[in-house]
Every structure is written in structure tokens, then in C-alpha cells.
Design a protein that fits this description.
This protein has helices at residues 4-14, 78-93, 126-132; strands at 15-17, 23-25, 29-40, 43-51, 54-62, 65-66, 99-109, 115-121, 124-125, 137-138. With 141 residues, it is of the alpha+beta class. A 5-stranded mixed barrel has the order 3-4-5-8-7. It has a two-stranded antiparallel sheet with strand order 1-2. Strands 6-10 form a two-stranded antiparallel ribbon. A hairpin with a 5-residue loop joins β7 and β8.
């Protein structure tokens, strides 16, 4: 069960303000996607099926979580080892070629060009699982 803080982080990221400054929940864009590559613990490359035999390959950043880095850090560092463990966990949960449900909560990309999303495997949020299992920290982008 996700922590209250985790729920608050996810809900805050899912809201936007209307012209009257009343919060409203934004309904996600929801798709099926095939895993092409797990880049690291919180970045995944997917082939998104938008219907009518149309697919797009895109990079996604898991919303509300941050895993330790595996790029730009020494391979002998503790951060690299934790990042590698997170990446390996994700690769095991969603191996290349598997189908996942992806929910995108924004029609804009973040600063590195990735779409912010939540990924579901068998109805369970991968984002929340990473935090619950200790592979990621809650994070606001």
C-alpha cells in the first residue's frame, strides 16, 4: 500500500488549475505499450500503440519517483550500485518485449524530452512499487 506522501505526490502531479483557480483532476492519456529498452530505473523507452496499427517510439520518465543514477557516476560508487539494482529490478518487472499500460498525465515533455508517466504491470503501479521496495525516492519534477 503506497504511503500517504506517495499518494499526495502523485495526486499533486495529476492536478492542474482551471481559470477560476479551482483544482481539477486531469484525466491521463492511457495507452498500451511494448517495452523496447529500460534505460535506467526511472527512464524507459516504449513503443506506444495509439490504435489503428499506429505506434510511436518514445522515452518516458516515471512520474513522482527518482532512482539513483547509473550514468555519469563512477561504477565503483554506492550510487551506481543502487542505481544498477533499481535498473535491474525494473528490467525484471518489465522485460523487453512485454506489454505495459502507460498513463501520461501531461501533453508536454519534461526538460530532457521525456514524457512523464505512470506504468502499470498487472494492474499495479510500477512507480509505487519502486518506492515501496526501496529502489526509488518520491520526487517532484
Amino acid at each position: 500500500m503506497p504511503s500517504n506522501k506517495s499518494k499526495q505526490v502523485m495526486n499533486k502531479m495529476k492536478r492542474e488549475l482551471t481559470a477560476e483557480n479551482k483544482p481539477r483532476v486531469v484525466e491521463p492519456y492511457q495507452y498500451w505499450a511494448r517495452v523496447k529498452r529500460v534505460v535506467d530505473g526511472d527512464t524507459i523507452e516504449l513503443d506506444v500503440d495509439v490504435g489503428f496499427k499506429v505506434t510511436f517510439r518514445e522515452r518516458f520518465r516515471l512520474l513522482g519517483v527518482d532512482t539513483p543514477e547509473v550514468y555519469g557516476v563512477k561504477r565503483t560508487s554506492a550510487e551506481y550500485k543502487r542505481g544498477k539494482a533499481a535498473s535491474d529490478f525494473v528490467k525484471k518487472k518489465i522485460p523487453v518485449g512485454s506489454w505495459v499500460e502507460v498513463k501520461v498525465y501531461s501533453d508536454k515533455r519534461e526538460k530532457y524530452g521525456r514524457w512523464l508517466c505512470e506504468i502499470f504491470v498487472d494492474g499495479k503501479s510500477l512507480n509505487e512499487t519502486l518506492v515501496k521496495q526501496g529502489f526509488a525516492q518520491e520526487y517532484m519534477i
